[in-house]
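User: Could you go from structure to sequence for me? I need the amino acid at each position, not a summary. Structure tokens:
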């Protein structure tokens, strides 16, 4: 089968490409808008396309589809998921399949405040959010949402991952300057602070039925000490876990945005001071950057996704919820191969004082 993967060369897409290439019957073609990423891809052929919000994107995408005639196309960043979803009928008309939820669900998930409103409406526990339209709203946010130290969490609501525009602060002048810098009045959201403890729940659904889901705890961000928020969107250490509360919260969050989930839904959660996981966003129609972790551990989600989309027999996995054993760790760094280890292996192979 021939699969076209967008965003080739970037970490989110390369994990998917690695996973698909574990099956020698798969041929993977790549496309992307950043040549310096694209050249690094494992894809057998690599096509340059403009940014997804460019007026030239659609024509170039359809040109690539006409040339390659892939069986399936998959997108790996919010902006491209959103814009490709809007032209899915044109994509399908070429004979290439997509496996995505309806556009209204994508729209809700890529705009963080829409997700928040859906969670609140469904009774899912989330920190209170306020849209910041002007400095008076910002003052109100500090008054209503500040924690014991007066701190709130700011971030952009518009499309974009990696903690776009995130800033934890108790300083009004800094917050105002931050929003000014981003020209973000009307786009930024203020929220009550959660803890730095986070967990994710990555799932594939088909026409309302859960096919498989796997959770992992995050134990740090790559280059997190180089950002003001500590968040980069790239997990440094992930650990498989299995928690009934996390399962329940994740499924309720997904049902809050879609009454018939279809495709990939990745729930990001952060724990509050009472130790309860609060959804912060749903990564829609795309895999997390650590999807290779699960593949190396024995759960190839991109292959499962491809098989569902193309109506092929599914690879075997032990159970629907968290089929991988808890406690597996995925270590990542720059310019070094990631590694799957256990805490026991770390203790045995590292010489501690």
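Assistant: Here is the amino acid at each position, in order:
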């Amino acid at each position: 089968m021939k699969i076209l993967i967008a965003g080739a060369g970037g970490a989110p897409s390369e994990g998917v490409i690695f996973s698909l290439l574990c099956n020698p019957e798969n041929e993977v073609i790549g496309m992307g808008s950043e040549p310096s990423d694209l050249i690094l891809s494992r894809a057998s052929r690599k096509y340059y396309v403009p940014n997804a919000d460019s007026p030239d994107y659609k024509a170039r995408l359809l040109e690539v589809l006409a040339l390659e005639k892939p069986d399936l196309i998959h997108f790996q960043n919010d902006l491209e998921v959103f814009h490709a979803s809007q032209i899915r009928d044109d994509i399908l008309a070429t004979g290439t399949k997509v496996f995505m939820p309806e556009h209204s669900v994508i729209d809700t998930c890529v705009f963080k405040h829409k997700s928040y409103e859906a969670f609140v409406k469904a009774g899912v526990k989330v920190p209170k959010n306020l849209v910041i339209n002007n400095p008076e709203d910002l003052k109100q946010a500090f008054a209503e949402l500040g924690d014991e130290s007066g701190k709130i969490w700011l971030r952009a609501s518009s499309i974009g991952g990696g903690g776009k525009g995130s800033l934890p602060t108790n300083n009004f002048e800094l917050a105002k300057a931050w929003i000014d810098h981003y020209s973000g009045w009307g786009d930024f959201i203020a929220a009550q602070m959660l803890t730095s403890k986070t967990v994710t729940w990555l799932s594939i659904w088909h026409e309302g039925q859960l096919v498989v889901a796997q959770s992992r705890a995050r134990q740090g961000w790559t280059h997190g000490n180089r950002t003001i928020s500590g968040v980069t969107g790239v997990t440094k250490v992930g650990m498989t876990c299995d928690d009934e509360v996390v399962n329940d919260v994740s499924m309720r969050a997904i049902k809050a945005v879609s009454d018939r989930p279809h495709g990939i839904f990745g729930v990001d959660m952060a724990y509050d001071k009472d130790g309860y996981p609060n959804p912060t966003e749903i990564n829609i129609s795309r895999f997390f950057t650590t999807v290779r972790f699960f593949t190396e551990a024995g759960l190839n989600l991109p292959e499962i996704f491809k098989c569902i989309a193309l109506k092929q027999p599914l690879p075997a996995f032990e159970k629907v919820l968290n089929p991988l054993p808890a406690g597996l760790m995925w270590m990542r760094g720059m310019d070094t191969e990631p590694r799957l280890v256990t805490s026991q292996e770390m203790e045995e192979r590292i010489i501690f004082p």
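One structural detail worth keeping in mind: The first strand starts at residue 2 and ends at 6.
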